[in-house]
């Protein structure tokens, strides 16, 4: 629609690059001999960054960015993004969050690894909030993706065949926080019952508000979702299951009692944690 040259390939990157170079840019000018053949490459999430195809694409493109980043860049300036990542629980949290937002009267859509592809949802428009399930594969190829809300659930070893090491996998997950909007718009929800995520909570706690930028809400403690992190973090924000079984979200010093865990219709502490994250 914008006059861009779009090419698709699964192995012949060099041939595509040669064709793009001979085609010139949208103004009709021929690219410089040393210029990348493509302005932007969007790798499939299934292609690991150390694969020959990915390496070849990186050499042929000025930039590689995942589909979620491309969609975020193309979305309306007044739209909002909530990004949910973690080893387990993403789909449940995204489904619940999108439902709650719709019940509140917002045009919310579940996108990413659940529901519509992000770019298809953005093209369709008519959405106030994109609630995106984002994988480590997708986050690894982001650079500017700046959601308004980031939910970081548990991080345990997974997809190591793609990332190579657990550290690379962890760092990809943590990229969901890299460009989070500043408070009051930017909020991170962090599962402090998970060892890896709790380490990130400690890192954020050590930063002053100006350096950190966004607000953060720790869920639970090392003892589980029944723990209140406010005293330990020196924060007014936390989410936890109270002694009477109530799901509580504390924001800016005010406690909001949502429901009792036994009223959720699904059992288990992990589902109570998912409900807290969605809220």
Automatic annotation (TrEMBL):
The answer, when asked if Secreted is one of the entry's keywords, is: no
Please give a single GO biological process term from the UniProt record.
Answer: regulation of cell shape
Instruction: Cite the Pfam families for this sequence.
Output: Mur_ligase_M
Where does the record place the Mur ligase central domain? Answer: 84-279
Example GO CC term: the record gives: cytoplasm
InterPro entries membership:
Mur-like_cat_sf, Mur_ligase_cen, MurD
Molecular function per GO = ATP binding; UDP-N-acetylmuramoylalanine-D-glutamate ligase activity
Keyword terms: ATP-binding, Ligase, Nucleotide-binding
- Name of the protein described by the UniProt record: UDP-N-acetylmuramoyl-L-alanine--D-glutamate ligase
> Can you name the source organism?
Gordonibacter massiliensis (ex Traore et al. 2017)
């Amino acid at each position: 629609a914008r006059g861009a040259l779009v090419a698709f390939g699964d192995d012949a990157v060099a041939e595509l690059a040669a064709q793009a170079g001979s085609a010139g840019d949208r103004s009709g000018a021929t690219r410089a001999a040393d210029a990348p053949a493509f302005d932007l490459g969007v790798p499939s999430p299934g292609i690991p960054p150390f694969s020959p195809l990915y390496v070849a694409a990186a050499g042929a493109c000025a930039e590689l960015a995942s589909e979620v980043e491309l969609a975020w860049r193309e979305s309306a300036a007044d739209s909002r993004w909530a990004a949910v990542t973690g080893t387990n629980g993403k789909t449940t949290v995204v489904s619940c969050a999108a439902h709650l937002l719709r019940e509140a009267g917002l045009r919310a859509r579940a996108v990413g690894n659940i529901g519509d592809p992000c770019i298809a949802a953005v093209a369709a428009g008519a959405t106030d909030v994109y609630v995106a399930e984002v994988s480590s594969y997708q986050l690894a190829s982001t650079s500017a993706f700046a959601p308004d809300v980031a939910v970081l659930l548990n991080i345990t070893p997974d997809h190591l065949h793609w990332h190579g090491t657990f550290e690379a996998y962890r760092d990809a997950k943590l990229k969901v926080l890299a460009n989070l909007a500043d408070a009051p718009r930017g909020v991170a929800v962090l599962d402090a019952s998970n060892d890896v995520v709790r380490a990130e909570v400690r890192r954020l706690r050590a930063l002053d508000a100006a350096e950190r930028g966004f607000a953060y809400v720790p869920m639970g403690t090392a003892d589980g979702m029944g723990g209140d992190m406010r005293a330990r973090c020196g924060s007014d924000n936390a989410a936890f299951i109270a002694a009477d079984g109530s799901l509580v979200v504390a924001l800016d010093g005010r406690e909001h009692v949502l429901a009792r865990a036994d009223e959720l219709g699904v059992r288990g502490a992990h589902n109570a944690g998912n409900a807290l994250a969605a809220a």
